[in-house]
Design goal:
The complex is a heterodimer of chains A (about 350) and B (about 500).
Chain A: H1 2-6, H2 10-26, E1 34-36, E2 39-41, H3 43-50, H4 52-66, H5 74-91, H6 98-125, H7 130-149, E3 154-155, H8 159-166, E4 168-169, E5 172-173, H9 174-192, H10 195-204, H11 206-211, H12 216-242, E6 244-245, H13 254-264, H14 276-296, H15 303-318, H16 320-336, H17 351-358
Antiparallel strand pairs in A: 1-2, 3-6, 4-5
Helix pairs in contact in A: 2-14, 3-14, 4-9, 4-12, 4-13, 4-14, 5-6, 5-7, 5-12, 6-7, 6-12, 8-12, 13-14, 14-15
Chain B: E1 11-20, E2 23-33, E3 38-42, H1 49-56, E4 64-69, E5 72-74, H2 79-84, E6 87-90, H3 102-106, E7 113-114, E8 117-118, H4 120-133, H5 149-162, E9 167-171, H6 179-194, E10 198-202, H7 206-212, E11 215-220, E12 223-229, H8 235-243, E13 265-274, E14 278-286, E15 290-294, H9 301-307, E16 316-321, E17 324-326, H10 331-336, E18 339-342, H11 346-349, H12 357-369, H13 377-391, H14 407-419, E19 425-429, H15 437-452, E20 456-460, H16 464-470, E21 473-478, E22 481-487, H17 493-500, H18 505-508
The chains are: A mainly alpha (about 350), B alpha/beta (about 500).
């Protein structure tokens, strides 16, 4: 039993389950899933569907953070991507043509790849600090998106395009399959090849990795490209959902939610060791929380406060220092107990640190 | 000065025990420090030196035992309490703030104030007095970061003694200092000793311990071996007490190089210049030969190593491998040609502390294969296991984070990473710095064995004796040039010292 406590995904998963329990107690229909016309509906299905854009962005953010970087431009890349896709479809003779939509999405993703490559160039080649390098595009990107749409919110009516966010593949939403595909692809590439461990090496210490013959520059550059591409796909899903390219609202603040998801999943902002599964759980926590806020009817003006309180609680639960503090309090109480009692147990969290001191 | 046995100890620790879980890092140890005496704490890595220091300086609580300072029993809850009681500490890793001024660093937390505002002028004057008191010529207003590590170390000492310090703890203060700087530090230590300060001096360098210390306490496996007067304890006895066994003898190799002019040269550098460190250096490394590189700090030892391993780009000169000119523009390129480099800065440029021993060992091989061709996990384990056994890495746990190993074992992990590449030339920059005597001899022997198996080695060390012992030939570096290359058996430590510190040094100043 003690093993499970120590697992690094214990607290994220416990938090997620806690949220689900709270929800299902507050409204029993939360867990219910109904079948309509061969398609599944329900609150849980909505969470899976709506989490797709954040899931993609957070996966890319995980890789970038693992290299000791950060990508603030993801929201702006989403806006550009949506603008490109909609402009192509809008100007096409037949918006309902599947080829047109595929071409539009392809071009949007290609542009996003170029934007990611630009970020990577600034960071990996020019050596600009990631937060500054990606801030450039974060600020400029939405302007570019507005430029592409000519300053308007382009709207389209295209059945194949709408399908991306709202359609169903067999019994589940298509957007969910995009999420799963991205998670699988990233997890396979990072963990079945050596990219994951090389990325962690670069994140822990770029210079030591270079001396060991690791192509640190290429790995960092690649991370920003992956982040850009995933943000581009997220932008397409977002635009498909509202059937419009809204340069100002698309992906607004998503970089912050993505960073939050990565941290909730137990990946350190200091770079190095990362967890794809952790990020997936982090995204689901955030999405479940949003759904909770909606359901509980928290007035929209106060919902950020509610959101913040829950996040602080979750983050504190994960902080080993906070937990250690509680353990110490408990021990003090034990020590003050009359007639001494047995010697207090050693806090398992202290163990690794202690052996280090002794070595 | 050392008629101190009759005197009252200033600090006395009795029956000190510190436990980590089930293990005792310090087991019933007694330790005394006398005023006006320099005391050394000796022991291998993991013997309990750091733990004892931490117990004295309030960084760790005692599980059992008493600490008596000046006849009164004291108990420190945190380092601040120890400081207030007059115990100053300078740790191995300098804990100062490089972007503040020297004066601010010295008086941090005790800045002179007038009407609540820090009085900069008074602060600079007071810091200046402290520095002058130590005979240090450093501008108190200059930012600390612009000074060398040595000066920063001395500033750290100035900070420690600027309070009314009676016990001064110096943990490995000389590990990054060169000969002159060590002399300067020793001058200051003697000065403080004359003032009656009790000084604890911890160092891996036996020479320095014998030069400066009056008394030595030896620890082994967390237990006290004994307390001795330095002048009454032979070096060999000291080492035996530390190890608890006869120290591994360095095995002298059959020297076959240096005499034969026809030996095949594997790597040759001509007129190599890189950055400010090195200008027009020549170096030849034969197959299976160990070339020792000797030079003072600043003579370009590290720059030379980095230039011939592709770490730093060349400004001038040419490097040939088996006669063919090569362009080493990255460590990666050098590795692919069989030239590997182990940095002098193990922690910053070597070990990836959070990754496991296995990941650290397989990293370079994996990087060379490219990320797409991952080694099978079973193969990785097999490879790492074979090196852990071959080099005797302790503990032999492949999944342990490498950062938790002792310095000597981290160095072995780093060597394993490079040797797993099956290199042709191994360039070792200070491979034995900051590791204990036992591990040091092991690494020196390993270098000999590797050379016997045909590997060429460039062995750089600040310790001249070690360079002579390990190297078949010695290249002498001065001001960024290799001024001479001699067979090791033609040189003694004294004659090497004379060559390294050239006569024209004094004119340059």
């Amino acid at each position: 039993m003690t093993r499970i406590w120590k697992h690094r995904l214990f607290w994220p998963i416990a938090s997620l389950l806690g949220l689900i329990v709270i929800n299902s107690v507050a409204r029993p229909q939360f867990l219910s899933i109904t079948m309509r016309d061969g398609e599944l509906y329900g609150a849980l299905i909505n969470i899976l569907r709506n989490s797709a854009p954040l899931m993609l962005v957070a996966l890319g953010m995980t890789i970038v953070i693992a290299t000791r970087g950060i990508d603030l431009s993801v929201g702006a890349v989403m806006a550009v991507s949506g603008a490109v896709a909609l402009t192509v479809i809008d100007n096409a003779a037949d918006p309902d043509n599947l080829g047109t939509v595929l071409g539009a999405v392809g071009l949007a993703v290609l542009v996003s790849l170029a934007l990611g490559a630009w970020n990577g160039f600034l960071v990996a080649v020019l050596g600009i600090q990631p937060i500054i390098a990606t801030l450039v595009l974060m600020l400029a990107g939405r302007g570019v998106a507005l430029l592409i749409t000519g300053g308007f919110i382009t709207t389209v009516n295209s059945a194949p395009f709408s399908y991306i966010a709202s359609g169903y593949l067999t019994v589940l939403p298509f957007a969910f399959f995009i999420s799963v595909a991205a998670i699988t692809l990233i997890a396979l590439v990072e963990r079945r090849t050596a990219l994951g461990v090389l990325t962690e090496a670069v994140g822990i210490n770029p210079e030591a990795s270079r001396l060991a013959g690791v192509r640190a520059r290429g790995i960092i550059w690649g991370a920003y490209i992956v982040s850009g591409v995933l943000a581009g796909v997220a932008g397409v899903i977002y635009a498909s959902n509202i059937r419009a390219a809204d340069a100002n609202a698309a992906g607004l603040f998503i970089e912050l939610y993505a960073i939050l998801a990565v941290v909730l999943g137990g990946t350190s902002l200091m770079g190095g060791k990362f967890s794809i599964a952790g990020t997936v759980v982090g995204v689901l926590i955030i999405q479940t929380l949003e759904s909770t806020i909606l359901f509980l009817g928290v007035p929209s003006a106060q919902s950020p406060v509610f959101f913040a309180i829950v996040v602080v609680i979750v983050v504190m639960l994960q902080s080993s220092r906070v937990r250690r503090g509680f353990a110490r309090l408990a021990r003090l109480r034990q020590r003050r107990a009359p007639d001494g009692g047995p010697p207090p147990d050693v806090d398992p969290d202290l163990e690794p640190k202690r052996t280090e001191v002794a070595a | 000065m050392t008629g101190a046995d009759v005197a009252q100890p200033l600090l006395e620790l009795t029956g000190a025990t510190v436990r980590f879980g089930a293990d005792a890092a310090l087991d019933d140890v007694s330790f005394r420090m006398f005023p006006g005496e320099v005391h050394s704490l000796m022991g291998e890595n993991g013997a309990g030196k750091s733990t004892l220091i931490k117990a004295i300086t309030g960084a760790l609580p005692l599980d059992a035992g008493r600490l008596v300072l000046d006849g009164r029993e004291v108990r420190f809850a945190r380092p601040h309490d120890a400081q207030r009681a007059g115990i100053g500490t300078v740790y191995q890793e300098i804990e100062l703030l490089p972007n503040l001024s020297v004066a601010e660093n010295i008086l941090l937390g005790r800045e002179p104030r007038s009407r609540g505002v820090v009085n900069q002028r008074l602060m600079r004057r007071r810091a200046g007095e402290i520095l002058a008191d130590l005979g240090l010529d450093v501008d108190p207003a200059s930012p600390l970061g612009m000074h060398s590590v040595a000066v920063q170390q001395l500033v750290a000492i100035a900070r420690a003694i600027s309070t009314d310090v009676r016990v001064l703890v110096l943990d490995e203060p000389t590990s990054s200092l060169d000969l002159d700087e060590v002399a300067e530090l020793f001058r200051i230590i003697r000065e403080l000793r004359a003032r009656g300060v009790a000084i604890l001096f911890v160092s891996h360098f036996l020479d320095q311990v014998y030069e400066i210390c009056d008394r030595v306490t030896v620890l082994r496996d967390g237990k006290l071996v004994g307390e001795y007067l330095t002048r009454e304890l032979l070096r060999i006895d000291l080492v035996n007490k530390m190890l608890g066994r006869e120290a591994g003898e360095f095995k002298a190799r059959e020297r076959t190089f240096g005499e034969d002019a026809d030996q095949p040269v594997f790597l040759s550098a001509r007129g190599v210049g890189a950055g400010p460190g090195i200008a027009a250096a020549d170096l030849d490394v034969g197959e299976g030969e160990v070339v020792g590189v000797a030079g003072l700090l600043g003579s370009g030892r590290t720059s030379l190593a980095r230039a011939i391993t592709g770490v730093a780009g060349l400004d001038a000169g040419i490097i040939r491998i088996e006669g063919r000119p090569v362009h080493l523009d990255s460590p990666r390129k050098a590795i692919s040609l069989g030239v590997v480099y182990s940095s002098e800065n193990r922690r910053v440029e070597g070990i990836l502390g959070e990754l496991s021993v296995l990941e650290n060992i397989t990293l370079a091989v994996q990087a060379q294969r490219g990320f797409w061709r991952r080694m099978r996990p079973a193969r990785q384990r097999e490879l790492a296991q074979s090196w852990v056994e071959a080099l005797g890495i302790r503990p032999p746990d492949l999944d342990r984070p490498a950062g938790t190993l002792s310095g000597g074992n981290q160095q072995k992990v780093l060597l394993a990473r490079l040797l797993a590449l099956a290199p042709r030339v191994l360039v070792l920059d200070e491979p034995t710095r900051g590791i204990d005597v036992g591990a040091k001899v092991e690494i020196q022997n390993l270098v000999g064995e590797l050379a016997d198996n045909g590997l060429s080695v460039v062995f750089i060390s600040a310790e001249l004796e070690e360079v002579l012992r390990v190297g078949d030939r010695v290249a002498i570096l001065r001001d960024g040039r290799v001024v001479e290359t001699l067979p090791s058996h033609d040189v003694t430590v004294d004659s090497l010292l004379a060559l390294v510190a050239s006569p024209d040094d004094e004119q340059e100043g």
